[in-house]
Structure formats: C-alpha cells, structure tokens
Write a structure and sequence with these properties.
Oligomer: single chain
Distance between the termini: 123 Å
CATH class of the largest domain: Mainly Alpha
Number of domains: 2
CATH topology of the largest domain: DNA polymerase, domain 1
Strand order of the largest sheet: 2-1-5-3-4
Mean pLDDT: 86
Largest sheet: 5 strands, mixed
Length: about 240
C-alpha cells in the first residue's frame, strides 16, 4: 500500500531533516560577519600606512644642512637633496614672489638670478647653490624703492594678471647686463660688433624664454627698451 505523508512532511523543504546542517543565521550573527568583512580593507589601509612610515623616516634621515644666500641674507635650512631651488624658496623660505608655472623649465615664471645670471629655479637643486648669490624678485626692489625695470613695467602697463611678471622682470634685469657685456643672441645682426643695440627683435629673442599667457609682449618690450634707452623709452 502507498505510504501516506503528513502535511508537515510534504511542506518541509529538501534537506530539512534532523540530520541536515542548519544554514540559518541570526541577525546578530549576520551583522558580526559583515563587520568583520568590512574591516578588512580598513586594516589593509592601516597596514599600508605603517609600511610607508619607514620610507618617510628614511627620506627624512637623508636630509642635509644647507646655507643659502638669498637677497643678501643667509638662510640655514635642512633639506632633502632632491628639493629644487624653486621649492626651497617657496615652501621652505616663504619667498612666494618666484612663481611655479609649468615646473618643466618652459615658461620662465620661476626665473631668478644666480650670481647675476638668470636661471629657471625649477630645473636646479637647492643643494647646488650653497655658495652662490641668489636674487629673487623680492631682492630686485621694494614697493617704496622700485627697481627701474619694475617702474618701467608699471609705467608701460607691461602685465595683466601679473603671474609671470616676477620672472619677466628678473629675466629683463639680467638681459640688460648681458647686453652691456656684449653677449650676442640669435637676433644679433653682427656678432663681431662691440656693443649690442637692444632693438625690438633683440628684446623679443632674449625674452623668448619667458611666456605671458595674457599676451602683454608688446608692452614688455617697450618697458625693457625704456630702461635700456631712457630717451627713446620716454618717446614711445
């Protein structure tokens, strides 16, 4: 005869016998498991930070004492050898006049004078200039005593946003010294001549390493020529 099953046996799900393992989780057990899983990525981040700490300590241990002479003043610093002169000026000494533009030596915004010569401070390391005489825009002139080049930039409206102006002025000051010493450029018609006449073409060529996104080039040329040739500058 066929075996009859009770209603409770027919409705029971497969594997619901007394010997089957229980898969039921209480709410408390579920939350505990979820919390454990969620904590795993956090622990990974903490462990990564702990692993990075020795590397940071190693970098700090490689720092070295350094004395820089900037705008006539001595500054004692402790820097890593990889710190650029630009970052030393801005981040460690607070001389924010020197600007960081491209950080690739292509725009000239970071131009400073080292021993009277213009350089891109983003392309040189601070540790290379311990015995050098460094001049930034802060050392060119002061608001109450402007350098003639600074005054000419104001008179001839040779800037707009002003971000590139410190580098432009430092470069222009060095340009005048180069011309006075007879240094030729790619625009010099006769490199054998004793003196250099700073024509518009000469100024444009010698300032070609300093970019102005606002396009104030025409007035920059006027300002530089006004300082180089005061009489001609007054007429322009």
């Amino acid at each position: 005869m066929p075996k009859h099953h009770s209603g409770s046996e027919r409705d029971a799900p497969p594997g619901a016998g007394s010997d089957a393992p229980s898969c039921h989780l209480t709410r408390r057990q579920f939350l505990q498991s979820a919390s454990a899983l969620a904590g795993s990525p956090l622990m990974s981040i903490v462990n990564a930070k702990d692993a990075a700490a020795p590397a940071q300590a190693t970098a700090a241990s490689h720092s070295m004492p350094l004395v820089l002479k900037i705008n006539g003043e001595r500054h004692e610093l402790v820097l890593e050898p990889r710190v650029t002169l630009l970052d030393a000026l801005r981040e460690h000494l607070g001389l924010m006049g020197t600007k960081k533009g491209c950080d690739r030596g292509q725009c000239g915004a970071c131009t400073v004078l080292v021993n009277g010569r213009r350089i891109n401070s983003c392309l040189t390391l601070a540790v290379m200039h311990e015995d050098d005489d460094i001049t930034t825009i802060e050392g060119i002139g002061r608001p109450d005593n402007l350098h003639p080049m600074q005054a000419a930039f104001v008179t001839h409206d040779a800037f707009q946003c002003g971000y590139c102006t410190p580098g432009q002025i430092c470069s222009a000051v060095a340009l005048l010294r180069e011309a006075q010493r007879g240094h030729a450029s790619a625009a010099t018609a006769d490199v054998r001549q004793a003196g250099v006449i700073l024509s518009d073409d000469e100024v444009r060529e010698r300032m070609s390493g300093n970019l102005c996104r606002c396009g104030a080039y025409a007035n920059i040329v006027k300002a530089i020529r006004a300082v180089a040739h005061p009489a001609a500058g007054e007429k322009s």
